[in-house]
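Moderator note: this is an archived Q&A kept for reference. The question asked for a predicted structure of one protein chain; the sequence and the answer are reproduced below.
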Amino acid sequence: MAKVPTRQLGKTGPQVSAIGCGAIVFSAGSRTTEVEEKRFKLYDRAIELGYTFFDSNDVYGDSEDSLGTYFEKYLHQREKVSKIILTENPDHSDAKLSNLQVFLGIKFALVMSPELKTYTVRGDAQYVHEACEKSLKRLGLSSVDLYYAHCIDKTVPIEETVGAMKELINAGKVKYLGLSNCSSDTLRRAHVVHPIGCVEIEYSPFSLNIECSVATF
């Protein structure tokens, strides 16, 4: 079986699978929410194949609750992944290998309406902290590997948003920061506050904004 390629997160981060496991397809992105045990089998299979970068969001239905239950019930999966990669990647140092486990990234910033038809974007410092606390509670974890803004709140300076995210790192609740759907100018300003290890940009035949000299994000 071919190994899933890995990439380094930022300049100093761990190696993560180049293709991740997006939890949205198991909840908000599906026509119906998958039965819990069926989802657990899909998580197991993703890890077995080497797709160890898990991505979720606080608006992906019950995604965070599901992952929290999964990791509580199958905590050994993190150790299992580490051992697999120790065997399959002998060229990496032990320090890097110890970081190669299920790498969990979660997003915030979208606030859905009660009927789940519209949303607003929030990136103010208070909301950043509140959203993180709620996500950690749903996940049953004290910290996550990657925390990134799903959208940029244009009513709040990016420096405030990333400043609050940096405070989460200082508090030991987050290890790395990321941004989604941001312009290059926003990214540069954010990076001044704290290094950004991950940028998520939609790119497909139906979304070509990234090719424009002036992004419309």
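Archived answer notes: The two ends are 39 Å apart (CA to CA).
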